[in-house]
Amino acid sequence: MSRAKSTLEQWRIVQAVVDFGGYAQAAEKLNKSQSSLNHAVAKLQHQLGINLLEVKGRKAYLTEQGEVLLRQSRHLTQSVDELEQLATNLGQGWEPNLIIARELIYPMETLVEALKAFLPQSRGTRVTIIDSVISGTHELINNKQVDIAICTTPPKGHISEPLCEAKFELVCHPNHPLAQVGDIEDDKQLAQHLQIVIKDTATNTTNDIGWLKAEQRWTVSNFHEAKTILASNIGFCWIPNFVVQQELASKQLIRLRLRGSSQRKIIMNLLIPDRDNQEPACKLLESLILQQHNES
């Protein structure tokens, strides 16, 4: 294995001389003598066999070759700084990864706002978001496969913090036969038409999202797929109102009026599956998610 000719310290000195405009300025900022900086750069240039800097008056300028090498050196020193910071974070118990389970009926935009506040303080923690449905979320929680879960009714043995209310609208295309009915008298009238439902994400289950009495049913993976089908004048669906706000406003879809149940509401909850072993990054993100709702 060949031995490196240069050191990180030498490259940091070159960067400082360039960034601060000269040897004297860099020496003052780094709290080193000017002669030591001159010696370090001269030695580096000798080791590499190439001139990196040239001095004009009191200011140091990069040569063409120096400009190319300095750019690469910044990537190198930044990577080492990040590596050392990661080691410090891990030593302090800061998690390198966080996994979040998000029920599809919880707005992604709301979660992103909390993540935006988390990012500057995250110390490089990687975040994975898993979209889940009903007992699929329970499965992730019970198996402790996620650090944070945003769910509807929590599974037995777990406590949770209420976040917000998810509202469902009963919708279809304006030209669908149900749209011509006016007030729908009861479930039996709905059951005569095709329903679009969202598949549960658990490994073994048949608990899909939605009222499930329709004889004809198409099951899809998410609400965006459901909207595509509805836009083709096929079926009806119970769907979160934030998903179809634009379509309802533009009358691409319409609300159906079901007597006694024109809108449905579900409480969304924040849950930490392994509270006893919760670590700093998870605690921070949990507080930011709660803060997002307290401020709204």
Automatic annotation (TrEMBL):
Family of this protein: Belongs to the LysR transcriptional regulatory family.
UniProt KW keywords: DNA-binding, Transcription, Transcription regulation
Q: Which Gene3D superfamilies match?
A: 3.40.190.290, Winged helix-like DNA-binding domain superfamily/Winged helix DNA-binding domain
Q: What is this protein called?
A: LysR family transcriptional regulator
Q: Which domain of life is it from?
A: Bacteria
Domain named HTH lysR-type is located at 7-63
| Entries under SUPFAM superfamilies matching the protein | Periplasmic binding protein-like II (SSF53850), Winged helix' DNA-binding domain (SSF46785)
InterPro entries attached to this UniProt entry: LysR_HTH_N, LysR_subst-bd, WH-like_DNA-bd_sf, WH_DNA-bd_sf
